[in-house]
């Protein structure tokens, strides 16, 4: 950690109290929120136990709230049993069976409404189909689907029978898919022939075939949903159409009651070293915080139409598409396509047509739509919107203000929610009926969440605007349980300092005079591209796997829309191209990285040099490379470089 100087430069002092119209409708009053904070402060475990009894239906009620005997492997509600799918679906049947659970809109504009009753039937039928394929409690199932209702049905069906799902984002390559299949030793893959995105077909089945050709011996069956209808190969004995798998299956499926600590899912995320980590989440604790955050941060009401634009391939799509909103009986929107197809009005057109009241998206999307101009959103009726949210990366105040004024017409609070794949649910975020928001700040920790800033010794930083390491000092229900199959990596990644007492988020932040948190960025070698985490090491490994590449170093540089752009410094086997330019090779390497990881990881820029700048001990001088990528003046001591002539090469000037 010592390499990093944490300095904060952002100054922003605009304040936005909640709008009176919003307060009128809320169920979270200032008094109620104060009481929640107070009871969490008095007894954190009793507070969560109380929430868990109120918010979840248990088949076997828990007696123990938290088992810390094997910290940091905390076990919440360990002797309780429940089922996540039951808590999402069956609970709605008595009162809300005919309520719309899902409004699905396809890329081409096709719309389906699915009621809670129908969703229950479809999940049960598919759960029975999974059982018929030999899937039972604890088996891992990979879901590699387009963003369609069936992706959520597949997740819920796994949850219903205690199978552990691992959703792989449809934009990931065959090689990334294979890594995840092999790490989970999944028995079954659920995919589709393809999906539609921006008028194009995304090949999913053929990518799955490529992944399976090269290994993945654990996979016995592949269930294929027919979405596009284009020709694909089906392998006899292994591949089954979804509709055939469902043939003759019963529409009732008794949930399998699992321990609260039973893994609900594994979701892979990038770290600073090695391959992506399989973040393992529990059933009870995870679902609890997905629900409490729906209430506190999204103020969810029975009449809301809730649209979180994230794909189910990311944690946001787990907590705020597949689980949290359904467990609170909401109506959700699921969208297959992209915000700019057929034009940059797509989101606003959908908000108008589906009468969306809560809209949750990423700063990168806001910045892209902001560039398209205010006339586009201004031509739609956005009056049903009452709350706006953002997630994934720091939102710059300019984009926050645009969102607030142009989309929210100054009446919708904006909730900037800080959390991570590992935290499972919102940790630091405004409670929109109470919190005075400030553009660019995720404000305060939620009730029961003990977030703090500490210095390298683990001592709390109390001075205002002083940067520090963001930590969470007490366990919380939806916390990561471990890294799948690698307990040591879990310990090393999240509990490496402070005697293993505090969860290290990997972000730096500051707190202002009023105690509001301002996230400053990552402290490790992780990039945040369009709100998605990418390990620099992962991209470097992909590059050096190419026969022409001897060595590479990857850093981020600020990007107007994506937040960060990927810049790769590459040393080739053999000669450096003349003047450092070889467009054909650059394109080849970009495509290669796309194939190895996925399109989001493609470097925006590749610079070739004779070697990489290293310290005497042989470590790559990453800070220097970051400065160079940003075009900043070089202030570091470069006298240790073997060959100072590489500096102009790294700068792209020679
Ligand atoms: O750096 C923080 C940033 O995204 C990281 C978590 O990434 P991931 O696990 O992919 O989850 C993204 C969706 C929850 C964090 O360590 N981050 C997330 N939300 C914010 C943020 N940075 C600033 N402000 C946020 N609201």
TrEMBL record:
Transmembrane segments: none annotated. PROSITE patterns: AMP_BINDING. Residues 538-619 form the AMP-binding enzyme C-terminal domain. CDD domains: ACS. Its EC number is 6.2.1.1. Coiled coil: none annotated. Keywords: ATP-binding, Ligase, Nucleotide-binding. Signal peptide: none annotated. One of its GO terms (biological process) is acetyl-CoA biosynthetic process from acetate. Residues 35-88 form the Acetyl-coenzyme A synthetase N-terminal domain. InterPro entries: Ac_CoA_lig, ACAS_N, AMP-bd_C, AMP-bd_C_sf, AMP-binding_CS, AMP-dep_synth/lig_dom, ANL_N_sf. Residues 89-476 form the AMP-dependent synthetase/ligase domain. One of its GO terms (cellular component) is cytosol. Pfam families: ACAS_N (PF16177), AMP-binding (PF00501), AMP-binding_C (PF13193). GO terms for molecular function: acetate-CoA ligase activity; AMP binding; ATP binding. Belongs to the ATP-dependent AMP-binding enzyme family. This is acetate--CoA ligase. It comes from marine sediment metagenome.
């Amino acid at each position: 950690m010592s390499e990093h100087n944490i300095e904060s430069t952002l100054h922003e002092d605009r304040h936005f109290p909640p709008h009176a119209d919003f307060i009128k409708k809320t169920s979270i009053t200032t008094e109620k929120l104060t009481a929640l904070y107070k009871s969490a402060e008095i007894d954190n475990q009793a507070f969560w136990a109380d929430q868990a009894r109120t918010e979840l239906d248990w088949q076997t009620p828990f007696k123990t709230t938290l088992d810390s005997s094997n910290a940091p492997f905390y076990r919440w509600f360990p002797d309780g049993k429940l089922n996540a799918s039951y808590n999402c679906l069956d609970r709605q049947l008595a009162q809300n069976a005919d309520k719309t659970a899902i409004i699905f809109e396809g890329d081409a504009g096709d719309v389906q409404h699915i009621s809670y009753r129908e969703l229950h039937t479809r999940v049960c039928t598919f759960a029975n189909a999974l059982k018929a394929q030999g899937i039972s409690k604890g088996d891992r199932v990979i879901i590699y689907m387009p963003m369609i209702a069936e992706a959520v049905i597949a997740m819920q069906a796994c949850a219903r029978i205690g199978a552990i799902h691992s959703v792989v984002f449809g934009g990931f390559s065959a090689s990334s898919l294979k890594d995840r299949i092999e790490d989970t030793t999944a028995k079954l893959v659920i995919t589709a022939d393809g999906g539609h995105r921006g008028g194009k077909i995304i090949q999913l089945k053929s990518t799955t075939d490529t992944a399976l050709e090269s290994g993945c011996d654990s996979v016995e069956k592949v269930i294929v949903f027919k979405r596009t209808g284009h020709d694909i190969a089906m392998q006899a004995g292994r591949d089954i159409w979804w509709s055939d798998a469902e043939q003759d299956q019963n529409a009732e499926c008794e949930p399998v009651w699992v321990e609260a600590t039973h893994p609900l899912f594994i979701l892979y995320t990038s770290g600073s070293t090695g391959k992506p980590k399989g973040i393992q989440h529990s059933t009870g604790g995870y679902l609890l915080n997905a629900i409490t955050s729906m209430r506190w941060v999204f103020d969810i009401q029975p009449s809301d139409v809730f649209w979180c634009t994230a794909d189910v391939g990311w944690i946001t799509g787990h907590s705020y598409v597949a689980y949290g909103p359904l467990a609170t009986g909401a109506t959700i929107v699921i969208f297959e396509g992209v915000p700019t197809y057929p034009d940059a009005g797509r989101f606003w057109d959908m908000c108008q047509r589906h009468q969306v009241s809560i809209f949750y998206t990423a700063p990168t999307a806001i910045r892209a739509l902001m560039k398209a101009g205010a006339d586009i959103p201004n031509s739609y009726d956005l009056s049903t919107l009452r709350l706006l949210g953002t997630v994934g990366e720091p939102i710059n105040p300019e984009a926050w203000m645009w969102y607030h004024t142009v989309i929210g017409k100054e009446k919708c609070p904006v909730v900037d929610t800080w959390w991570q794949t590992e935290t499972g649910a919102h940790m630091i975020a405004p409670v929109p009926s109470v919190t005075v928001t400030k553009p660019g700040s995720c404000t305060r920790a939620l009730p029961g969440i003990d977030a703090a800033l500490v210095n390298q010794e683990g001592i709390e930083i109390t001075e205002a605007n002083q940067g520090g390491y963001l930590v969470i000092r007490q366990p919380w229900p939806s916390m990561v349980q471990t890294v799948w199959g690698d307990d040591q990596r879990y310990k090393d990644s999240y509990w490496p300092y402070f005697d293993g007492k505090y969860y290290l988020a990997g972000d730096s932040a500051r707190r202002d005079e009023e105690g509001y948190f301002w996230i400053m960025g990552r402290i490790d070698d992780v990039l945040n591209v369009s709100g998605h985490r990418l390990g620099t090491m992962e991209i470097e490994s992909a590059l050096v796997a190419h026969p022409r590449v001897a060595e590479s170093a990857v850093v981020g540089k600020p990007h107007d829309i994506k937040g960060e752009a990927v810049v790769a410094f590459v040393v080739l086997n053999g000669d450096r191209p003349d003047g450092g330019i070889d467009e054909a090779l650059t394109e080849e390497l970009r495509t290669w990285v796309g194939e190895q990881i996925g399109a989001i990881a493609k470097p925006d820029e590749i610079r070739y040099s004779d070697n990489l700048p290293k310290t005497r001990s042989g470590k790559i001088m990453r800070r220097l490379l970051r400065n160079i990528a940003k075009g900043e003046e070089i202030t570091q001591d470069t006298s240790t470089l073997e060959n100072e002539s590489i500096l102009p090469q790294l700068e792209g000037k020679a």
